[in-house]
Design goal:
Structural class of chain B: mainly alpha
Number of domains of chain B: 1
Strand content of chain A: 25-35%
Order of helices and strands of chain B: HHHHHHHHHHH
Number of strands of chain A: 10
Helix content of chain A: 25-40%
Structural class of chain A: alpha/beta
Strand content of chain B: under 5%
Distance between the termini of chain B: 35 Å
Oligomer: heterodimer
Number of strands of chain B: 0
Chain lengths: ~200, ~280
């Protein structure tokens, strides 16, 4: 699979948040997005997964003009789930939208992130790190070919960081496209096959 | 593979199941509001009727429906009487709409990032929210009217006799068909208001939508206008009476309004939401 972004520009209320961005992503690689806050990393992820529409430019997937909707696992900014439900119940509800996986796959995704699928605590009782892990579990559970992870290491302890790093290596081995953003340059350089530097909405 | 994996993809049904769980079951405490208001409305109604008709007066379910959702006559400057808003009716209708005020929009804001990358069509999500709005308002209305009947029954004021008090007051032939007609008209009007409220929450945000609907209810109470959906939620506006100086609203008028509303809601889902940025 190949994602190709061509001359993508997005203007929101007069502000250019993505400016003539052209880049590509291929299966079996981890791509890092680097840049300061507000540089456009998250916006580029939103563009890939179809949450925003281009003012100008295109996104092609395997040569076809489309976004990654339906083929992408996403963690953008902070995870958002329903407070009054357990982690497992939240993921089960999300999984039912596409209905392509079963309960076993959901439980497996939760376990892979070091959480307990049988945990009866409601989401609102989760610590920040647990919420982050659940967000990543939601992104990987459907085994989509594309993974967009925005600051996946936020709020994770050392063990959690190691877990997610190992997970990314596994995803690369499974021929996924993994795009991640991270503030820690060292971490990004260690993990990524390629790094795109973004500044004021432009690739530099 | 579990049974879930073998199921055929029914996106719309999946969304609606999600809405039922997240919007109704997990927020059931909100549905206590129409119940409380129904109980209070029934007690006020019974007190009012006891004063006017005596302690022994009993009411049929048609009387209760008519009384609680009667509303008021529109303002008539010729009468020289100041306009008095029908607080009972406004409370009953308003609190049927409150449980569904926040949910569709908060789901869009909170879960949009999780949901929209999973579906190629936002339309299905939107239509599920619209259907859920109608369903939620229906549940609220049934709970409220059920409470009104239950409280009247507990107070020993509910009778199964056919002689209804209010229809006779309006010179109408009392019948179950009359009650059913009123029931469906109020239900459809309130469901339409719920749908309108949901549309407004996406255009203006929930607090503004709430104020707009309240204004809409007050406007319906003040004016008699076939283009005001709120007029159709008042049983007092349905019938011709020599005592009244205005034209009653008709079921056909409401159908036209509901069709227009459906077109508006569909256009919003197909044109606006489908192209809206999720930030």
């Amino acid at each position: 699979m190949r994602i190709e972004i061509k001359e993508y520009t997005k203007i929101i209320r007069g502000a250019t948040v993505l400016d003539n961005v052209s880049c590509s992503f291929e299966s079996g690689k981890i791509y890092g997005l680097s840049g300061v806050n507000g540089s456009g990393k998250t916006m580029l992820m939103r563009a890939i997964c179809g949450l925003i529409r281009p003012t100008h430019g295109t996104i092609m997937i395997d040569g076809k003009e489309e976004t990654a909707i339906g083929k992408v696992g996403v963690l953008i900014e902070t995870p958002s789930f329903l407070d009054g439900m357990t982690g497992y119940e939240n993921l089960l509800m999300l999984a039912r939208i596409q209905n392509c996986i079963g309960e076993d796959e959901i439980k497996n995704a939760i376990c892979r992130l070091g959480l307990d699928p049988e945990d009866r605590r409601k989401y609102r009782k989760y610590s920040l790190g647990m919420k982050q892990r659940l967000g990543i579990a939601a992104a990987i559970m459907e085994d989509h070919p594309i993974l967009l992870l925005d600051e996946p290491f936020n709020a994770l302890d050392r063990e959690g960081v190691k877990l997610v790093k190992d997970l990314m290596a596994q995803l690369r081995a499974k021929d996924k496209i993994v795009v991640l953003s991270c503030h820690e340059r060292n971490l990004l350089e260690n993990l990524s096959d390629e790094i795109y530097e973004i500044e004021n909405g432009r690739l530099v | 593979m579990t049974s879930l994996a073998k199921k055929k993809n029914h996106f719309f049904l999946s969304y609606f199941q999600y809405d039922l769980k997240a919007g109704l079951i997990k927020r059931f405490s909100l549905y206590l509001l129409p119940i409380f208001v129904g109980a209070a409305a029934c007690l006020l109604l019974l007190e009012d009727i006891e004063i006017r008709e005596g302690k022994d007066c009993t009411l049929t379910w048609i009387d209760l429906l008519f009384g609680a959702y009667r509303g008021c006559d529109p303002y008539d400057p010729l009468k020289g009487v100041p306009f008095s808003p029908p607080f009972l009716w406004i409370s009953c209708v308003f609190f049927c709409l409150i449980p569904v005020l926040q949910y569709p929009y908060s789901d869009y804001v909170l879960s949009g990032k999780n949901i929209f990358p999973r579906t190629k069509s936002r339309k299905k999500w939107w239509f599920s929210k619209c259907l859920f709005s109608i369903f939620s308002v229906t549940v609220s209305f049934l709970l409220q009217f059920g409470t009104i009947c239950a409280v009247a029954g507990i107070r020993g004021k509910l009778t199964q006799n056919t002689s209804s008090f209010f229809p006779a007051h309006y010179g109408l032939q009392n019948s179950g068909a009359l009650g059913a007609k009123m029931f469906f008209e109020i239900w459809f009007a309130i469901a339409g208001l719920g749908l309108l409220q949901t549309l407004l929450t996406f255009i203006f945000k929930p607090p503004i939508a709430c104020l707009a609907v309240l204004t809409f209810l007050l406007a319906g109470a003040f004016f008699q206008n076939p283009f005001l959906l709120s007029c159709y939620a008042m049983t007092g506006r349905y019938f011709n009476s020599s005592l009244l100086a205005y034209q009653p609203v008709t079921a056909a008028g409401m159908v036209v309004l509901l069709v227009l509303l459906t077109v508006l809601v569909t256009l919003y889902g197909v044109i606006v939401l489908e192209r809206k940025d999720i930030l």
